[in-house]
Design goal:
heterodimer, A: alpha/beta, eight-stranded mixed sheet, B: alpha+beta, five-stranded antiparallel sheet, 5 strands, globular, binds S-adenosylmethionine, Trm112 (chain B), nucleus (chain B)
Chain lengths: 309, 149
């Protein structure tokens, strides 16, 4: 595991220590993070769910983050799209999607939260589901995925059988399959520390996503917000810029990962795909299996071809 | 006075959902067992419906419509030039967006596992032991490769 993190750091080329800032993410009643108090289906009971209709400040904050996440999704402006809202809760982010003319499906593990969504008469279809069990729709269903204040819940093991890295991986890899090529998933989330951030991003990359974290208002403890922006099937995406950073696209307030899953395969002791070693190994394997006749390795094996080809 | 018009599971959602019970190879399409359903008028958005047509499994939609007895004039097949065929799109819209299942079950075609629908909300939660391995098994990642075993 340690190796994993070290390598990840190398790849991102960014010192994640500065992300050790305290994230403001506590409930009003207590100073502890909700994820530490109870499993989500227990924490989001009727009382907690009710706040999402009655606490106007909370509603305002969630809506603002949803609007920003939708902006980061960069859906085609004039086309009605089909979007998945993960941890949709009472449907606030869904309402923001409806306002933008899009259609959506919301999933959440808490029935009381979904009950509130029904009561609010949101437009989207809803279903009860645990993102850690995976997301199961036909390939290429969604034009985009949005998730507000939910992802950090996956970092906790709420049952003996829960293994957070596995649950994260299952979530991201199945999610990837449901998304259209070139579409994005944007998660506003509250990682507890740099370790969690690394865990989340590394599992997302392993599942095939590229992307990174956009930090809005990094210098303000109150306004600071983090958005994990993932791209399905895009090799060199341009990460959007954080708000209030005064930075251009490659500013220091984004953590950019171009490392594809191939790089992460290294962690499992296998050569990088398409690397020289990988090609060699594959040829070797094929030879052993007696398949095809391969050119002997040359000094050109595994090198990038020049443009001329 | 406010009349609560609760939202229900649409056939559009049904057409996209698959079963994910551990070990199931072909969890699509889920069968529908209906105890209560409703037809509710929804604004017709021809552009959205047109955009969704290529993503649908039309056969599954048609069969779902048959099993709910709401076929009406739904075309058994996707017609050519559907974007400009308002009658076709309107029927697709009616079946996809206006038919709502309130109470019943979604049933995995392979394992027979029943997922209850209550108040129009399917409960897709699995029991321990039903959760599959984390994996790329999802057929459609359309990743070219053998890269994750
Ligand atoms: C802070 S609320 C945010 C709700 C909504 N997105 C909003 O912005 O108003 C977090 C939501 O994540 C949901 N959640 C937590 N863990 C989950 C999981 N494993 N699967 C699905 N939903 C989950 C909770 O039930 C809760 O509704």
């Amino acid at each position: 595991m340690l190796n994993f993190i070290r390598l990840f750091r190398l790849i991102s080329g960014i010192n994640l220590h500065r992300l050790h800032t305290n994230f403001i993410h506590t409930t009003m009643a207590s100073c502890r993070r909700p994820e530490h108090q109870a499993p989500p289906e227990v924490f989001y009971d009727d009382t907690e769910a009710r706040k999402y209709t009655s606490n106007s400040r909370m509603i305002e904050i969630q809506m603002t983050m949803a609007d920003r996440a939708i902006e980061l999704l960069a859906l085609p402006e004039d086309k009605p799209c089909f979007v998945l809202d993960v941890g949709c809760g009472s449907g606030l982010s869904g309402e923001a999607l409806t306002e933008h003319g899009h259609f959506w499906i919301g999933m959440d593990i808490s029935k009381p939260m979904l009950g509130i969504a029904e009561e609010r008469e949101v437009e989207g279809d809803l279903f009860v589901g645990d993102m850690g069990e995976g997301v199961f729709f036909r390939p290429g269903t969604f034009d985009g995925v949005i998730s507000i204040s939910a992802l950090q819940w996956l970092c906790n093991a709420d049952k003996k059988t829960h293994n957070p890295p596995k649950r994260l991986y299952r979530f991201f890899s199945t999610l990837y399959g449901t998304m259209r090529r070139g579409s994005r998933a944007v998660f506003q989330f509250y990682p507890e520390n740099s370790h969690q951030l690394e865990l989340i991003t590394s599992q997302a990359m392993r599942a095939g996503f590229s992307g990174g974290v956009v930090v809005d208002f990094p210098n303000s403890t109150r306004a600071k917000k983090m958005f994990l922006c993932l791209f399905a099937g895009l090799l060199n995406p341009q990460l959007p810029t954080g708000l209030g950073t005064g930075q251009g696209p490659q500013g220091s307030d984004q953590v950019a990962y171009s490392g594809q899953r191939q790089r992460f395969r290294n962690l499992k002791g296998k050569p990088l795909k398409k690397s020289r070693d990988w090609i060699k190994e594959k040829k070797e394997r094929r030879r052993r299996q007696g398949k095809g006749d391969f050119k002997a390795d040359s000094k050109y094996s595994g090198r990038k071809r020049s443009k001329k080809f | 006075m406010r009349v609560t018009a609760l939202r229900r599971m649409k056939l559009l959602t049904h057409n996209m959902l698959t079963s994910h019970v551990k070990g199931v190879k072909n969890g699509y399409p889920l069968k529908i067992e209906v105890n209560e359903m409703k037809i509710r008028e929804v604004d017709f958005n021809p552009e959205f419906i047109s955009r969704m047509i290529p993503r649908l499994e039309w056969k599954a939609l048609y069969e779902a419509a048959q099993s709910l007895d709401v076929v009406g004039n739904l075309s058994p097949e996707v017609v050519k030039d559907y974007e400009n065929d308002e009658d076709f799109l309107k029927e697709a819209h009616r079946v996809l967006m206006e038919v709502e299942v309130i109470k019943g079950f979604l049933i995995c075609p392979e394992s027979g596992r029943k997922f209850p629908i209550e108040n129009g909300i399917p409960n897709m939660l699995l029991n321990e032991g039903e959760v599959g391995d984390a994996g790329p098994s999802q057929s459609g990642t359309s990743q070219d490769d053998d890269s994750m075993q």
